[in-house]
Amino acid sequence: MQLECINCLECVDACTKVMGALGKPSLVRWSSEKETIAQEGKTSYIRAKTIGYFVALTLILIALFAMGSKKENMLLNVNKTTRLYKVLDNGGVENDYIFLFTNTDSKAHTYYFEIVGNDKIKIVRPEEPFKIGAGKKKKSVVVLETHEMLANDARKDVPIPVKIRAYAVDDKENIAVERDSVFVFPRSDLIKK
Questions:
Q1: Residue 62 main-chain phi, psi, to 5 deg
Q2: 171-189 pLDDT tens trace
Q3: pTM (global) more than 0.90
Q4: How far apart are CA 97 and CA 129, in angstroms?
Q5: What burial class does residue 101 get, using C-beta atoms within 10 Å of its C-beta: 0-12 exposed, 13-18 middle, 19+ buried?
Q6: CA quadruple 48, 50, 51, 57: dihedral positive or negative?
Q7: pLDDT, tens digit, 9 for 90 and up, residues 20-73
Q8: Which of these, 22, 17, 47, 53, lies nearest to 34 by C-alpha position?
């Protein structure tokens, strides 16, 4: 109970050894200030504060187990390539992405993906679903294309939010993830009519 004490607990070992040689109990005990100094009786371990700590710890452990049990059977990392877009001769616009798929399930699956909520942007490449073995990764270059006028701004390029849903073709309901990305549409003066 002194300010200089750094709680190294070496005094407990020393005191127990010396007092044990004299046949007496140690002067340093694992007890409360109330029990040791004031000598007002035994420490009560069941009180509001300890019950509160126990309840909080229990809730944290339940939350950790709940979060740990919700394992995704597929991981997807979507990265935009260094080229923002490519304007095609027919007036279309392409954006390139690199998708890194990881199959975290215990068996192989065939994967594909779709654009959610925007039917003006189409998947050009890859054209077919692809298979990934259990615990394996696959990097794929993905090309999205549009022939629609998604924005009409002559001053700057316009980023258009895109939601990509990737899924296992053989278990579409249980193995699916959604990722948000951006489709960059060029200035209107760059579009070839």
A1: -60, -45
A2: 777 778 888 888 888 877 7
A3: no
A4: 16
A5: buried
A6: positive
A7: 898 888 877 766 666 666 566 666 678 888 899 999 999 999 999 888 777 677
A8: 47
